[in-house]
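MODEL INPUT / OUTPUT PAIR
PAIR INDEX: 1
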Amino acid sequence: MTAIFWKLGNSLAYVFLLGTNLYSDLGPNQAKSPYFLSHTTYITPAYFTFYVWFLIHLLLGGFVIYQFFPDNDKIIAEGINFHFFAIALLNSLWLFLWEIDFLFLGFIVILFVLLQISYVYWNLKKNHFRSDDIFQTLFIHAPFSLYHAWILIIAVLTIYATFTPARPIAYDPAVIGNIEPVTDETITDTSSVYYESPTILVQILVILGLLFMECTAIGYIEKFRGDLAGAAVIAWTLYGVWSEQQDAIIRWTAFVLALITTLHILKPLILKYVFKRDDTPIFG
């Protein structure tokens, strides 16, 4: 009875989370949406990075359906319980706070989201919840691995948006004449956009943030039984930072760390499929 209660709650939470993200992406207040690079800082990745939400929502949709299959009662009741419901509501609240510029409150909320998703993530990594079943891996373990890594990235972006200077944006006067600097929300053509360089302190803080991402990606692989999904989200984000940022130090630091992460992702795959090391864990 408890399991079916949480399964129905998970379904409603998923629909609500999907609806809020679609409204943010397609609604009338797009300029304030994080998917359109509002509140940009010197660690903000390119807009395409946020496309990972499509994959997360797709797999979470599979999770909502797969949870009703037989033999999933225990993992839903004990491994996930009410936490996905809380995660979806708090994630939507964070999105709302971001869009109305309440960044400090958003920072507090996203920390609660991170705590909730971490609890589920660690629960699913317990031995009695691990499975060689491809569908359980694809529709339970994979979406929460991706979601955990993405919420971690969102938390980092929120921290930098809250506590570090915004990245000023202007049009290149050499291209279109001398006009006043504009904000992200008014940009329609970025072909002549340039950004002011960060201070040394901001460069140091951003590099520390990038190193934190890289260390987390390695932790996903080494500590959590080859969690390639979580590591891939971080690699994707690092490539996004490399693509978006113009400061040479930040840009190329992100690129090098992205390459290191990519090579680390390939390591368990090579051990398992090239050197036939069957004891090498893949995807947790």
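PAIR INDEX: 2
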Amino acid sequence: MASLIFVPRATPTPRPRLGLTSRAIPGVITCGPRDNRGPLQRGRSLSTEAILAIQSLKRLTSADRSPAAASAAAASALGRLLKADLVAAMAELQRQGHWSLAVAALHVARGEPWYRPDPALYATFVSSVPGSDEAGAAVDALVEAFLEEKARGGGFVEGEEDVYKLTRLVRALVAKGRGRAAWRVYEAAVRMGGLEVDEYVYRVMARGMRRLGLDEEAAEVEADFSKWETTISPPARDVLDEMRAREKSKTSATAS
């Protein structure tokens, strides 16, 4: 017990109190923000590997941007990227306006074991397509490739599809004036695939087909919508009618 009682205690070293006249510690560098940019958004930051891969891809295709050369360069530059880095690289190439290189990166992703045809991913490609004479044909080819991938994978499976993502793709196609391509997606997913969608999808398709001059397709969408309404349970129909009435009153108030 005596040995425990007489163990010397460590004396705390007093810290000097910094006053208003204290000097800054040399070697410590502080700085504020360099500009008024906001914080980075989720998905906008690239890893070092993705940055180097994008630079390598643009360097390899600086002299030849043909589809064959772009595909070969993308396989060499992007083939070893992880899923997150490859997806981020595709988004960054679209943002920089290198749409053809982004499509080449998509071809690389198709060979990965994790790849699944995602309507939201294709919607970003449709939205970012450059406004040129060949843009329409490129979008149509992209949609055909998406539908072929879905068919090989078993088609549109109820319970495994995200209706919101499908709506994004349809809206992007309508916004780009590709009514036939939007109809192909709708027909494959809803009319032939039997995918259960909501009222919003029907309204987007019907209005889009009307605006693009496809009156026959618009009428078929409206007929599908009428059939869908008959399958709604009474409680759900009451909620739907209430939402429509609220939307109608809001529109009337805005117009007045």
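PAIR 2 NOTE: The radius of gyration is 28 Å.
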